Amino acid sequence: MAESTEKTRKKSMILPPVVLAVICAVCCGLLAFANAMTKDKIAAAEADAIQSSLSELPNAGTFTEIENFTSADSDRATATGLYVDENGQAAVLITADGYNKGGLQVVVGVDQDGAVTDIAFVSNSETPGLGTKVETNPELLKDHLIGITDSSAVEEVDGVTGATYSSKALKAAVVCALDTVSANREVIDA
Q: I need a labelling partner for 164 at 20 to 30 A (CA). Which of 5, 8, 95, 117 fits?
């Protein structure tokens, strides 16, 4: 009798972890399947968002991507794409860390004279109502960054009150774009 109680006790100790492992394996399989089914759609949606943002730039032509470029990254912003249109306008795709890591993804247009022509938002996952003000209220920050040619002048522009991290992210994105265009001027002008 004691032997059967011991077997029952061992079984009750082993069964829950085994069931949990099976549930975890099934969930992992379902997540892998969902990823396989949606990754192409997600990539296409991201590419469409980037193209839409490129077309928002003033006097935008047909942009072609420069594959091998020198990125002027900082601790807050990273250039992930460089594009040039037939008019010589450059556009830099930037991912910047605001309150959220990678919270802003923007396209910064830079003309042949090295001036910021516009900033188009690809995605903004900053705090709604606060950090999103950098996008929804362009008169507070974005409009003041347009026309700047010197990356050192960006720091002189006031940020949005209550959106300090998001303001710093947008300003870092502009500095990164200006510096990336400057570092790739020969390729852009070719």
A: 117
The Cα-based distances of 29 to 32, 38, 66 in angstroms read: 5, 14, 37
Question: Is residue 97 within 8 Å of residue 160, measured between CB atoms?
Answer: no
37: burial class by Cβ within 10 Å (0-12, 13-18, 19+)? exposed
Which position has the token pair 């710093």? 168
Q: Which two tokens stand for residue 55?
A: 């077309």
Express the helix, strand and coil content of the chain in percent, nearest 5 each.
Answer: 50, 15, 30
Would you mind telling me the total number of residues written for the chain in this entry?
Answer: 190
pTM here? 0.77
Average the pLDDT over 109-116 and give the result: 91
